[in-house]
Structure formats: C-alpha cells, structure tokens
Specification:
Blueprint lengths: L1 H7 L5 H14 L3 E2 H24 L2 E3 L11 E4 L5 E11 L7 E8 L11 E5 L23 H7 L1 H13 L4 E4 L2 E4 L8 H13 L7 H8 L7 H13 L4 E3 L8 E3 L28 H10 L14 E5 L2 H6 L1 E3 L15 E8 L5 E7 L4 E3 L2 H6 L7 E6 L5 E5 L2 E12 L8 E10 L8 E2 L2 H10 L5 H13 L7 E2 H11 L4 H10 L3 E5 L2 E4 L4
Parallel strand pairs: 2-3, 13-17, 18-20
Antiparallel strand pairs: 1-8, 3-4, 4-5, 5-6, 7-8, 9-10, 11-16, 12-15, 13-14, 14-15, 16-17, 18-19, 21-23, 22-23
Helix pairs in contact: 3-4, 3-5, 6-7, 13-14
Length: 521
C-alpha cells in the first residue's frame, strides 16, 4: 500500500535527468532502463531521507512550560505532529494565573494555521497543563520503503515512466536497451564499420558481439571497453548492413546479406490469408481438439513454464524447414526486442549444429530443413525442443527407430485434380497417425496449390473429403487428417475449417470429429 502511495507521486524531472547524465559521465558505463529506474528510485528515496533529516534538525517538541526564542522550530504532538516556526513573542495575561509568555507560530502546512495566518500558544507557563509532561522525543519518519519494495510493487509503471522520460531527452542515446550520455559516445567512422563487416564476413556472417568484433580489429580507441562497445553497437544499429540478432539482454550482430530470405518474409507455404468465421460455431469438443493441435495461428493461452516441449510438423513446416512457435514451443525459445534471434539448433543424438532463426513476428523457427532431411522425418512427425546449456542453444530430438513400412494416404495429383491412394512408406520416426500424409511430387503439389489459391475453403474441403473418404470406412475422415491435407494446399488453422464444416450442409459429422460429404452418406 505504501509503495503504491509513493508511486503516485513518482515523476522524473529535468533535474533527475541532469543528475543521471552526470552519473553516466562519471561512471563511463552504459545502463539499461531497469538499472536507471533503480538508480532514480534510490536517488529519490535518499533525497526524501535527507529532506526529512533537515526538517527535523534542531526541532523541539512543544511544551508550554518551556521558553522559546523567535526562529525556534517546534513540533506539536497534539496537532498530528505539525511543524511550525516561532515568529513573535509577547507577554500573556490571564486571571488567577502566574505570568507567562505567548508565542506566535506560523505552520509549514497552512492548513494548521488559523484564518489570520498563524496560531498562538502559551510558553513559560508554570501552572498545571496537560502538555507539560509530554516526552521530548522527536518521532522519526520511516515508512519502511526501499528500492526493492517499490520496484516489486510497480515494475511496469516505473519502467514505463522511466523509458518515457529518457526518450524525451536528447542528451542521452540508446542502443540495444542500454543508455549513455551523448557527449561521451565515440565517433565511429566508416572505416571502423568496414572492418566490422569484414570480421563478420570471416565468421560466415556471424553472430558476434561488439566485444568480439573490437578484439578482432584491435580496439577502436583508448577509452574504456564498455564505452567502445556501446559506441560500436550504436553505430552498427544505424548501418543497414548489420542485423541485431541476440536474445534479450545480449547484443549480437549478423551480416544481413548472409541471412536467408525466410527470416524476413514467410515462405509461400506458410502464408495465411485470414478467413473470417463465426467462433460460436465451434463446439467444446472442437475447441478441445483445436487446443490439442496447437497451431501457431490459433490464439491459445498457456499457463506454466516448460523446460522442453513436443510438437508435430505439418506439411508447410516440413516443406519450409521450419518449426511452429506455438503455445508450448514458444516457452522454450529465447525472447528479444529485435525481430530475429539467432540460435544454435543442436541434434541431441550426435551434437551436430544447425543455424536457426527465431522469427517471433511470423511465429516460426527457421533452419530445420537439414535436420528433417537427415532423418527423413514425415509430415506429422513429433519433434521435441529443449533449452541447451546456453541461452541461444536449443536441443532437437525425436523418437527414432529402424524404418519400417507404414500405410498412409499419399497425394496423387494432377495440376487441377486432387487424389489420394493408400500406400506403404518406410518411416523411421514416431508420428501422429492422423496427421501423416505422403507427398511424392512436390512440383505437382505446387501447381495444384496455385490452382486452388483462388478457390473457396468450401471447394477445397469438398475435394479433399470426397477423395480421402474413398480410403476410409463409411467415407468418414477424421478432422485432423482433413486439417493436415488442407494445409498441403493452403495454410489454414483449425478454426476456420471447423466453422466451414459446421456451417455448410454439404458436410456432415458421421461421428465425433469424423466428417464426410452429405452426398456420400
């Protein structure tokens, strides 16, 4: 409660920024927004303590039996410890009372003054009085607040206030979440940036930290390393050749020309054109299955913290060599302020490393093509991801076994006609039997996808269910298989598919989650 009350009066003034700027210049060390917020709160608490000590210095507790001089500062315990100064003294008169004095007091808080702007009190009063035996002890102001208490009670609000104030002042510069005084930032010339590019090029594009780049080029000045690092980070952030790809709290650089297009633009097979649908059409059973499928395009709230997560790969991700950042896998991969994060994807079986890119903007991780092809993983295979020893290391694994033949529906297509046949294929990994599909002719699938690109979802579902139904009992196809097949032709989450099936009389639910054409019933 006290922390919240303190926060209501929290503000950052120009004097605070001046103090911070001098602090940064003195320390020659860039600070994060959180570190600056902590400093400012600490500085304000110390200032409040100093003001309280000054306010109570030479302060006396008012006692009517004592004598006072003009200028004395008094605390009145019977007036809620109000504080005032003696401004005048005169003789007092009262019947049947020994001589005494009257002091005129002007209170610091005007609300304690009488309408005429002051109040009067007895002094040197020798007759009995209720306040004559009051203790002389001055109560100390101690609200029990410290930096940790305040920050823990209002972390978001304080950081927001701090960030807003910092952004308004041109005396400060920010890069990668760190702030520093503008006047101390080193001038990084184009030659130094060319050297940084050359160092990254020798490292196959990166990633490297500014410290590693500075070490390779032999330093950029005689200034402290922290200042060199900040200045180089700032200069590289303003040069279009370089891309910041480090996880939250760590600045790492990569050459953009070494990055794959997929880290900037989703591959065609992953591009979803949003379909409006009535969510009320989905039953509880449908919503439950939707959650189980955990498509990254479906908004699913996840409560908890995972050390590893398992998901399946549908055709678009298998084809693009990506892994979905869904409700569960998102818990494993690092966060960042930047659009892309470089990670090392490590094969848990043999330690082989693959370059990976966490693209939070598009909800996928790019860089798994070599892993998928290494183990010939099918559509529907289960993949497990876990955190490695370091923040930018992710361990990949799957349940593998000696390949044996499995029956599965395989696309047999022309450029305009969908078809399926049940065929046997050698599979050497654990998979979801309802998601698995075979695709033999990728070029034909691409042409078919182009043909259906302008067709409605109803048209696609009619063709898929009609053809798949020929392979199953009572022509009924499980929704998961339908969802998997639709995503071979067009990226689509489960929700719109469920809604379309329920809203159209052409389709009927034969049993729980099993659908067929009404004309085939």
């Amino acid at each position: 409660m006290l922390a919240n009350q303190w926060m209501r009066n929290f503000s950052i003034t120009n004097d605070d920024i001046d103090w911070l700027t001098n602090y940064l210049i003195e320390k020659e060390t860039p600070l994060t927004t959180r570190e600056i917020a902590r400093l400012l709160v600490q500085q304000k608490l110390e200032k409040e303590q100093s003001e309280a000590e000054a306010r109570y210095k030479d302060l006396q507790v008012y006692n009517p039996s004592k004598s006072y001089e003009i200028g004395d500062r008094l605390m009145f315990s019977h007036l809620e410890y109000a504080i005032g100064a003696v401004t005048d003294i005169r003789a007092g008169h009262a019947p049947n009372t020994p001589p005494f004095r009257v002091i005129k007091v002007v209170f610091d808080n005007p609300n304690h003054n009488a309408p005429r702007g002051f109040r009067e009190f007895a002094a040197e009063y020798s007759a009995p009085h209720a306040l004559a035996d009051i203790a002389d002890t001055i109560p100390q102001e101690d609200n029990g607040l410290d930096v940790e208490t305040i920050l823990n009670a209002n972390p978001t609000e304080i950081l927001s206030h701090t960030l807003e104030a910092l952004r308004k002042h041109k005396e400060l510069r920010q890069v990668a979440g760190y702030w520093f005084a503008k006047d101390l930032v080193l001038d990084i010339n184009i030659g130094t940036l060319h050297l940084a590019e050359a160092v990254l090029e020798m490292a196959n594009g990166g990633p490297l930290t500014a410290e590693e780049i500075i070490e390779q080029i032999g330093g950029i000045s005689t200034s402290p390393l922290t200042l060199q690092v900040f200045s180089l980070n700032l200069a590289m952030s303003q040069d279009s050749r370089f891309d910041e790809v480090g996880p939250l709290g760590r600045v790492m650089w990569y050459l953009k020309r070494f990055e794959h297009e997929a880290v900037y633009t989703p591959p065609q097979v992953l591009r979803y054109k949003p379909i409006q649908y009535d969510e009320e059409l989905l039953t509880e059973d449908m919503e439950e299955l939707e959650t189980e499928l955990d498509d990254e395009l479906t908004a699913i709230d996840f409560v908890g913290k995972l050390s590893k997560a398992t998901t399946h790969i549908i055709y678009p991700h298998r084809r693009a060599g990506t892994l979905p950042l869904n409700a569960k896998t998102r818990q494993i991969f690092p966060q960042a302020r930047t659009p892309r994060i470089f990670v090392h994807l490590i094969d848990s079986a043999d330690g082989q490393r693959f370059n990976g890119w966490v693209v939070h903007e598009f909800d996928y991780v790019y860089g798994l093509w070599d892993y998928y092809t290494k183990y010939r993983l099918p559509i529907g295979a289960y993949i497990t991801v876990a955190r490695g020893e370091h923040e930018n290391e992710i361990l990949l694994s799957h349940e593998g076994h000696n390949a044996h033949k499995e029956s599965l529906p395989v696309f047999t297509v022309s450029t305009t006609q969908i078809g399926f046949e049940m065929k046997k294929r050698p599979i050497g990994a654990t998979f979801d039997p309802l998601l698995i599909l075979g695709v033999d002719d990728l070029n034909a699938i691409d042409e078919l996808a182009k043909f259906y690109s302008n067709k409605t979802l109803v048209t696609i579902l009619r063709a898929i269910i009609g053809e798949l139904g020929r392979l199953y009992y009572q022509n009924a196809v499980h929704f998961t298989t339908i969802y998997s097949a639709v995503n071979v032709l067009r990226r689509c989450p489960p929700g719109p598919i469920f809604a379309t099936l329920r809203a159209n009389a052409e389709f009927e639910e034969y049993a729980k989650h099993y659908w067929r054409l009404a004309s085939q019933s």
